[in-house]
Amino acid sequence: MVEVNDNFRQLPVSYLFSEVARKIAAYKKENDACEIIRMDIGDITRPLFPSVINAMHEAVNELASSATFHGYGPEQGYPFLRDAIAEHDYLNRGLSIEASDIFVSDGAKSDLGNLGDIYSRNCKVAVMNPAYPVYVDDSVIDGRAGKLVDGHWNRLIYLDCDPDNHFLPMLPQERADVIFLCFPNNPTGEAISHDDLVKWVEYAHNHGSLIIYDSAYEAFVRQPGIVKSIYEIDGADEVAIEIRSFSKTAGFTGIRCGYTVVPRRLKGRYADGSEVALNTLWNRRQTTKFNGASYVAQKGASAVYTPEGLDSVKNATDYYIANAALIKDAFRKIGYKAYGGDNSPYVWVSTGNGKDSWQIFDELLQNCGFSTTPGSGFGTKGEGYIRLTGFNSRENTEKAMSRLIERYL
Ligand code: MLT
């Protein structure tokens, strides 16, 4: 028998969202297939935009004829999409990111894990606590997390986030080589201001650290002064990789398309101290292990940047933010503490009465027929919280919240 990667033994048996789905399915089975409104995983519910659908239909038609057929595409993404991203998401916002800095992929989650191929196994990794579980689980699989002791991986640096620091972590006390930041944040739904993010870019410059900035929810930013891209901070292109997704912006959770920005000015060093551009390494990694996102998905993604596409992004994200506002209001009405939701589709809720996350999950499932994500699945600082998403339909969100109010007010 082959010797397997021992790091898997240490992981929780299943991934957080698989565990939540398993519990919901078990509950439905025991309770005669009752209707459960899903407010746990951040999966969108509105259909793809007409501009995206048209572009994808056209792409499929091209594939149907030998004159216009496309086989393997560039591993980095088609120029039509890389150019559109550079222009709309960066150059038009005064940020000097170019098409050659951008690598199109099949989504943020894969890139977040795959990036571990280009930094050393010896790197000390810092994660926000609570955090999207992918950062921690990938660090465990790659052997960077150490051992699990009292709920903490002993080689990870935890950046605690709670109401006292407005869910914005303090800078690490010890040197972190790689720092995962996510804003607007999953799971807390809180966003970061320009001034607060400057400190992290300065830290990275002073300590030679790499920031992996997960900006999958930037399209939900509404308030002025809140950061959408880390490259809004001077010098960030020398210390940060940014990861974006079309999933939440344009409803691509099933289509799969995202991108990662690895600016050519961002450098690392080999063990002998010689310098190398991370862009070169990522390009080498992608050309070896990835054959590019599908042509049809990339054509669809490029339609997001047409005037109709941009309008649709605004409308869809407004819709989900309005759902988040309904959720936040309803929980506050019944006396719970609720955070996030203003620049984000996520609302972070605590009863404030000592109940643990899975107890709250079970109680709401049983009493109100909707599912949530237990905060403890995002880290020890998530214990006592649940996360809700604004991604369900308005009708279902209203139904779930009126059940909550009827039961608890
Ligand atoms: C979430 O619910 O946190 C996200 O949908 C998970 C993901 O994007 O993979």
Précis, in short:
The protein has helices spanning 16-30, 50-63, 79-90, 108-114, 133-141, 194-207, 247-250, 278-289, 295-303, 307-333, 357-368, 394-408; strands spanning 37-38, 102-105, 125-129, 148-149, 152-153, 156-160, 178-182, 210-214, 240-245, 258-261, 267-269, 275-277, 337-340, 346-350, 370-371, 373-374, 385-389.
In this structure, how is the largest beta sheet organized?
7 strands, mixed
Instruction: Tell me the number of strands.
Output: 17
Helix percentage range: 25-40%
Proportion of beta-strand residues: 15-25%
Content-based structural category? alpha/beta
> Radius of gyration from the CA trace?
21 Å
Strand order of the largest sheet: 2-10-9-8-7-3-6
What ligand molecules are bound, each kind once? Answer: D-malate
Low-confidence segments: none
Ends: how far apart? 59 Å
Number of helical segments with 4 or more residues: 12
**In one word, what is the shape?**
globular
Pattern of helices and strands: HEHHEHEHEEEEHEEHEEEHHHEEHEEEH
Estimate the mean pLDDT confidence: 96
Description:
Helix content is 37%, strand content 16%. Helix 3 packs parallel to helix 9. The protein has 409 residues and is α/β, with parallel strands linked by helices. The chain has a 7-stranded mixed β-sheet with strand order 2-10-9-8-7-3-6, with helices on both faces. Strands 13-14-17-16 form a 4-stranded antiparallel β-sheet. The chain has 12 helices and 17 strands. The longest helix is centred in the last third of the chain and has 27 residues, at 307-333. The protein starts with 15 loop residues before the first helix and ends with a helix. Strand 13 (337-340) and strand 14 (346-350) form a beta hairpin. It has helices at 16-30, 50-63, 79-90, 108-114, 133-141, 194-207, 247-250, 278-289, 295-303, 307-333, 357-368, 394-408, and strands at 37-38, 102-105, 125-129, 148-149, 152-153, 156-160, 178-182, 210-214, 240-245, 258-261, 267-269, 275-277, 337-340, 346-350, 370-371, 373-374, 385-389. The relative contact order is 0.17. The chain binds D-malate. Residues 41-43, 109, 132, 186 line the site of D-malate.
